[in-house]
Structures are given as C-alpha cells and as structure tokens.
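Tutorial, part two.
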Amino acid sequence: MKRTASVILLCLCASLFSCGKLTGQFAWKTSGMDAYRQMSDDMEFASDKPVDWVFAFDGVRGIRYIYVVLQKKELVWVDIKKETVETDKTSPFVHGRIENLEPGEYQIVLAEKTKRIADTRFVVYDPEEDSADKPEE
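Running the prediction step on this input gives:
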C-alpha cells in the first residue's frame, strides 16, 4: 500500500512540473506558398526573398512572455534581433519575418525567462553566387 501511494505521489508531482512546459512547432512560408508548412532544421533561404515563420504552441494557459532571439553564427552565436512577445490562449503563437539578412547560418531561439522552449536553424544564401556556380546552358 505504501509503495502504491509513493508511485501515485511521484506521478502527480511529475505531471505538475510538466504542465507548465511550453511546446509547439515551427512552420515556414516562402513566396509562392499559400500556407505555412513544417520543415526540418537546416533549411536554406535566398537572401533576396522574405520568409515568414510562425511557432504555434500546443497550448498556453494564462499570459506568457516569450523571448524571441534571432542569432547569426560567427565564432559564437551573436544576437541580431531580440524582442519579447506576449501570448495567451487566444493567440497561442509567435511569428516573424526573415529578410535583408547577409548570407550565413542563423537560428531562432524561443525562451521563457531562463528556459529554452525551442529553436530552429537555417542558412541564408546569396542566389547570385549560387547561379554563378551552375554551368551555362
């Protein structure tokens, strides 16, 4: 009986700590796309075309303040843009636009206070350099 009570108490504690954790998915929309689509990490986008992104939370209880950080990889990750976004159950998402970035490797990091919620990486390339590498027809 004591063992059963201990297991139940342990399960209750674990569920209480996991209830407040925010989870969700990134989705992307490039020119020519009619809707957002989930894509894997390490995507590549041309520097001359804007890309919209959204992170949809699985569920949000109450008002939450989400830190959104765009970083570029140099010797270390360098913050390019930082903002705080308010979200709640009526608008359980954060979104942004990627444009006017120099070629390189980037990541978007979402956090709440000191806890990282999610991140995704992508590469921005110069389409002119890409076409220069292709043989002429």
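The chain has a mean pLDDT of 83. In part three we will examine how such features are distributed along the chain.
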